[in-house]
Amino acid sequence: MTMVSDITGEALSRDPYPIYRRLREEEPWAWSDRLGLWLVSRYDDVVLVDRSPEIFTAHQENSLAERAMGRVMIRTDGDAHRRLRAAMDGPLKRRTVRERWSAALLANAEEIAGRLAARPGCDLVADFAAPYAARALTMAVGLPGTTVEQVVEWSGAFIAGLSNHSGDPAVWRRCELARAQVGEHVAAAVARVTREPDDTVISTMVHADLAEPLTVEEIASQIRLLFSGGFNEPWHALATLVWQLCERPDLAERSRADAAALDAAIEETMRWLTPVGAFPRQLAADHTLDGVTLRAGDKLLALAGSANRDESKFADADVFDPDRADLNDHLAFSLGAHYCLGAYLAREQLRCAVRVLWDRFPGLLVTSPPVFAGWMFRGPRELQVAFAGAGRE
Ligand code: HEM
Fold this sequence. Notes:
Elements: H1 9-14, H2 16-26, E1 29-32, E2 37-40, H3 43-51, E3 56-57, H4 64-69, H5 78-88, H6 94-116, E4 121-123, H7 124-141, H8 148-162, H9 169-195, H10 201-206, H11 216-247, H12 249-257, H13 259-272, E5 279-283, E6 287-289, E7 292-294, E8 299-302, H14 304-307, H15 343-360, E9 365-366, E10 372-373, E11 379-380, E12 384-386
Protoporphyrin IX containing FE (HEM) is lined by residues 73-74, 85, 137, 140, 225-226, 229-230, 233-234, 237, 275-276, 279, 332-334, 338, 340-342, 345-346.
């Protein structure tokens, strides 16, 4: 049997769920020498970590996120965090998302689906979900001239930096280039919206009513953060959701007829295949739990991907079941001070995309099961679909 000390990023990336189950059962607070951090795997403990920033701070010394993207809100706490978050949240609030972005999301999905319509099928990840999520993000952020290829590259570079525990210099070179390029694009956008304010994220940050206005570099760092999580996660979730709906014609039928059923399928997708699998934190002070002492400065990962499969919280946790009673208790968007700022936009993206896909491709069919990879960030690498019910491979 694999011991905690033997757990590698590669094994977790292939399939983290059997490892998570063992951790929950045998060593819920597990120190991994190889990863150099604690792994926290039970639902209640992940909640405790997320709700106790005075013990488990989001600020990390020598943070990979900070090296990759600059001083990002997700690695700050307290007043510094509130200042950055308050400056950004306007365009991402639930009501604003519905009123301001829904129609544009539908139009975006229509346009991409329209271009695919002449084909017998496609890779839903590369051909639909990725360009759709990239455009949704650049639209909301306020970088409309950015290409899908740029978003894919920047996002990939930042995510590689976030996971660069081994310090690979090639990863840092790629990251630095992306960091500089995003910085240039943001600086140009800041100059534009300073003259002509609009309702995008960048403009909202430029004109935020703060005692100490944000610098261009502070804005650029937060936008880099959005390129890492705000792009990757919606397309991961969309591909998983479409796959699960295609696997369950009864559920697909219900979700077509009833918006609440589609919303339930979206939430269950988040729980069942949690796109952001782990929340990095650091011990602010020594802390002892269940006989285990963690020392000030120790790093840890609160494993949301494991918590969302914890049988002591979710019955038959490995089963995809949008009818479960505690559907909304999942931790896919976290629940503490760092609760995902893009959660409403992400959900709306999924709703709009699924509606358009069904309208355009009523016979949509998955032709081979997707292959998943990743654990800090997990999602399908591709999803081959046929549009006219052309049959399974
Ligand atoms: C399915 C899609 C998404 C998932 C699963 C997701 C998940 C998460 C999670 C788990 C966190 C907290 C991590 C932690 O506490 O360490 C987070 C934070 C954040 N997310 Fe998302 N996210 C998604 C989409 C988006 C989108 C579309 C945007 C913006 C356009 C966005 C913007 C942010 C920001 C700015 C934060 C940092 C909040 C803070 O530190 O206060 N996310 N997200």
